[in-house]
Inverse folding.
């Protein structure tokens, strides 16, 4: 796996006490569609990923940034950075077959004796705010990790294999967002296990490894994941409001 230190000095890239944001941006954006993965599509005049990175950095300027990119998009991303005079230092790591594998690749460059915090954030969630990040960081204290979650506002039905469905008590459900933040030592251990398709987020990886003391903090309904066509316009609107 190659590692690219964008606008940074590789010898001073990561120390064991560093706090790190891992921004996963190696997906193909199949639900969003189009020729370019959504994280490189235009949001307010430049590639979405730049907004995500800048907002994370402005909330936590001392945290290091790792960006996970598919190998076939790395040169294109570097070109976009040049074209947009985007100079924020970040380390680029190759993506994996699934989101979880992309995270694992990023973790492979973190010092194994790291004592910092690691945040994992979807590139596709550009409307991240300082107050949400602060609440999650505060939430990690004394826990195995902290993650933002929102109450579900639609009614929910569970669909069986026979096509029948039944109502579910939505008061017990939460929709989970990112960033999800964990002590590095625990996260590194958790990602040592075999990665299963059911691991759709990092909290599920931690839980499967026995780290069940996970604190849910109030999520932000504006912190949407750009997933389907139309979501970009909503994200742009939300950015203009916050
Ligand atoms: N192999 C993968 C798959 C996803 N991601 C990242 O994980 C985040 C959440 O995934 P999702 O929104 O599902 O993105 P895609 O996988 O690109 O979308 P789709 O499922 O529609 O193809 C995104 O920022 C995406 O780039 C990643 O880094 N590596
Ligand atoms: C990590 C996540 O954004 C939390 O809601 C979500 O699980 C990602 O799912 P996706 O299918 O990879 O978009």
């Amino acid at each position: 796996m190659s590692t690219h230190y964008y606008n940074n000095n590789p010898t001073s890239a990561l120390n064991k006490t560093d706090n790190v944001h891992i921004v996963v941006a190696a997906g193909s954006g199949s639900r969003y569609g189009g020729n370019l993965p959504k994280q490189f599509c235009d949001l307010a005049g430049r590639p979405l990923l730049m907004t995500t990175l800048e907002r994370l950095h402005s909330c936590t300027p001392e945290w290091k940034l790792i960006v996970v990119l598919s190998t076939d998009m790395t040169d294109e991303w570097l070109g976009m950075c040049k074209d947009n005079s985007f100079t924020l230092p970040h380390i680029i790591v190759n993506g994996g077959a699934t989101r979880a594998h992309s995270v694992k690749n990023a973790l492979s460059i973190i010092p194994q004796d790291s004592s910092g915090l690691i945040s994992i954030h979807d590139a596709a969630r550009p409307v991240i705010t300082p107050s949400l990040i602060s609440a999650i960081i505060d939430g990690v204290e004394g826990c195995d990790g902290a993650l933002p979650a929102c109450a579900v506002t639609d009614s929910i039905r569970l669909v069986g294999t026979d096509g029948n469905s039944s109502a579910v008590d939505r008061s017990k459900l939460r929709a989970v967002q990112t960033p999800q933040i964990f002590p590095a030592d625990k996260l590194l251990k958790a990602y040592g296990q075999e990665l299963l398709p059911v691991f759709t987020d990092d909290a599920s990886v931690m839980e499967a490894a026995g780290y069940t003391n996970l604190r849910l903090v109030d999520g932000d309904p504006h912190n949407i994941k750009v997933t389907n066509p139309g979501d970009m316009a909503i994200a742009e609107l939300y950015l203009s409001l916050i």
